[in-house]
């Protein structure tokens, strides 16, 4: 019996992904739950573990290729596979690379392996101009697969969603006092507050798909996490039913899974609302972009201090600026402001135990 591994759909809006790495070759044995593929989307670099035990009988696509959701990547067979030995038309000869003396001198100076340079001279001879061109090409920043797919999805979001961003300051005195007693991340506080507010403002759980409005029935709050220059969008499922401490525990576990490269599809699927925190980089406010499959995203800024009037007295208090970007086709400004005001009240009142 044979099983086909297709490009998985990690989120409802996903149309394609990139094969970052294939960890097995044709003919090799694969154990159930063994690491098989690395899949790259705009939300996550995802390690795909084999749901079957068997042998790789066929590899349909190469590393770095874009593959549409549902298209085949690998075929697994339950029986050992006998591979045909294919003789290549060209046999590599251990000949010295042909290059001009000036090209060889320049290559030595810059530590360049001539085998990596394509020659433009007669018979493929490498010239000094070829070396100079190679040096210039290496100076250009390379576009990684994840950068490419993020660019495509962000452009799609920008073209399809008419975004509006509103900002609101939130006093965080009680939040900071709570953090002195309990080791809780800023993300967890705002995931908690958003989940409570989303129960009252359920339009934020809807998104547009073509001309239709799609409703997410669960309050699953995603949070953006950057690790080793890769962006992950990790999901706290049913966040409205969890306490602050439970959210923090799950938040920590998901981050640990990223670092251990043990994420599952369940960890990145089903997000109905998102937060992104640039406050850790001392960013005060910004304009986050709505992810496809959502209608809004909350940006969290850095803690800073402002003078406010409290009961007729001026005080210096710690505040965070929240930046809410939303799809104006579904949500209007007044509705969004009330939602943000509700988050503000939850944070400022400091009632994190309910």
Note down, in words, how this protein is organized.
The chain has 354 residues and is α+β, with helices and mostly antiparallel strands. The protein has 3 domains: 2-77, OB fold (Dihydrolipoamide Acetyltransferase, E2P), CATH 2.40.50.100; 101-139, Dihydrolipoamide Transferase; 161-349, Chloramphenicol acetyltransferase-like domain (Chloramphenicol Acetyltransferase). Helices cover 26% and strands 30% of the residues. The chain contains 7 helices and 16 strands. The protein has helices at residues 101-110, 128-139, 145-160, 173-181, 186-198, 244-259, 333-349, and strands spanning 2-6, 16-22, 29-30, 35-40, 45-49, 54-59, 66-68, 72-77, 163-171, 206-209, 212-215, 221-227, 230-236, 273-277, 296-310, 313-327. It is globular. The protein starts with a strand and ends in a 5-residue tail after the last helix. Mean pLDDT is 89; it is low at 86-94.
The first-level CATH class name of the largest domain: Alpha Beta
First-residue to last-residue Cα separation: 53 Å
Which outline best applies? globular
Mean of residue pLDDT values: 89
Structural class, judged by helices and strands?
A: alpha+beta
Proportion in helices: 25-40%
The number of E-state strands comes to 16
- When the domains are counted, the total is 3
Quickly count the helices.
7
Report low-confidence residues grouped into runs of 5 or more: 86-94
Largest beta sheet, briefly?
6 strands, mixed
CATH fold topology of the largest domain: Chloramphenicol Acetyltransferase
Strand order of the largest sheet: 9-16-15-14-12-13
- What's the name of the CATH homologous superfamily of the largest domain? Chloramphenicol acetyltransferase-like domain
Please indicate the percent range of residues in DSSP E strands (runs of 2 or more).
25-35%
Order of helices and strands: EEEEEEEEHHHEHHEEEEHEEEH
Radius of gyration: 26 Å
């Amino acid at each position: 019996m044979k099983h086909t591994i297709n490009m998985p759909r990690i989120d409802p809006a996903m149309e394609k992904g990139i094969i970052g790495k294939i960890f097995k070759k044709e003919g090799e044995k694969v154990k159930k739950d063994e690491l098989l593929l690395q899949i790259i989307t705009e939300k996550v670099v995802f390690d795909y573990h084999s749901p079957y035990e068997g042998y790789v009988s066929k590899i349909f696509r190469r590393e770095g290729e874009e593959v549409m959701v549902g298209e085949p990547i690998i075929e697994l067979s339950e029986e050992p596979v006998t591979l045909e030995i294919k003789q290549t038309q060209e046999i590599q000869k251990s000949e010295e690379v042909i290059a001009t003396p000036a090209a060889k001198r320049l290559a030595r100076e810059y530590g360049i392996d001539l085998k990596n340079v394509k020659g433009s001279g007669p018979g493929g001879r490498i010239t000094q101009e070829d070396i100079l061109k190679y040096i210039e090409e290496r100076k250009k920043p390379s576009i990684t697969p994840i950068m490419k797919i993020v660019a495509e999805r962000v452009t799609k979001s920008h073209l399809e969603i008419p975004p509006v961003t509103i900002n609101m300051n939130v006093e965080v005195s009680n939040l900071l006092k709570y953090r002195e007693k309990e080791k809780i991340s800023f993300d967890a506080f705002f995931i908690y507050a958003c989940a409570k507010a989303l129960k009252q403002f359920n339009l934020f759980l809807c998104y547009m798909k073509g001309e239709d409005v799609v409703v997410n029935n669960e309050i699953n709050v995603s949070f953006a996490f950057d690790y080793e220059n890769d962006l992950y969008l990790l999901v706290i499922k049913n966040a409205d039913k969890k306490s602050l401490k439970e959210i923090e525990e799950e938040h920590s576990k998901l981050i640990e899974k990223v670092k251990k490269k043990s994420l599952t599809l369940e960890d990145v699927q089903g997000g109905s609302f998102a937060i992104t925190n640039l406050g850790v980089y001392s960013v005060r406010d910004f304009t986050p972009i709505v992810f496809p499959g959502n209608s809004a995203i909350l940006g969290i800024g850095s803690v800073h201090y402002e003078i406010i009037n409290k009961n007729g007295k001026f005080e210096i208090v710690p505040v965070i600026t929240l930046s809410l970007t939303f799809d104006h086709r579904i949500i209007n400004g007044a509705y969004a402001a009330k939602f943000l005001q509700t988050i503000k009240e939850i944070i400022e009142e400091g009632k994190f135990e309910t």
